[in-house]
Amino acid sequence: MRYSITITGKVQGVWFRNYTKEKADELGICGFVKNLADGSVYCEAEGTPQNLELFADWCGIGSPLSEVKSVNVERKDDTGYTGFAIERNP
Fold first, then answer.
1. What's the CA gap between 11 and 19, in Å, rounded?
2. What's the pLDDT tens digit per position in 14-73?
């Protein structure tokens, strides 16, 4: 199972992506996280249904300095990610 997750609020410049990777690694989640130009953060996450729910719930809390306003989760088909990466903007 894969989730496509968009998080809005104060989620850039607060180590959100690094903490997201730590949580993904802890839960055995594969995929990626990246900042978007509009100030939000976008994740694709694959894992067990239970761990994806825990991960999505964590995204609503975020890093210690973040202030999450909203979390939009969409279920998608698996793509076969083999790890979790932080994507950097070019």
1. 11
2. 999 999 999 999 999 999 999 999 999 999 999 999 999 999 999 999 999 999 999 999
DSSP state of 39: S
Burial bucket for residue 74 (CB in 10 Å: 0-12, 13-18, 19+): exposed
* Contact in structure between 66 and 9 (CB atoms under 8 Å): yes
pTM exceeding 0.85? yes
Which is the catalytic residue, given 18, 35, 75, 89? 35
Q: For the domain covering 2-80, report its CATH number.
A: 3.30.70.100
- For residue 75, indicate whether it is catalytic: no
35 catalytic? Reply is: yes
57 CB-near residues (< 8 Å, 6+ apart): none
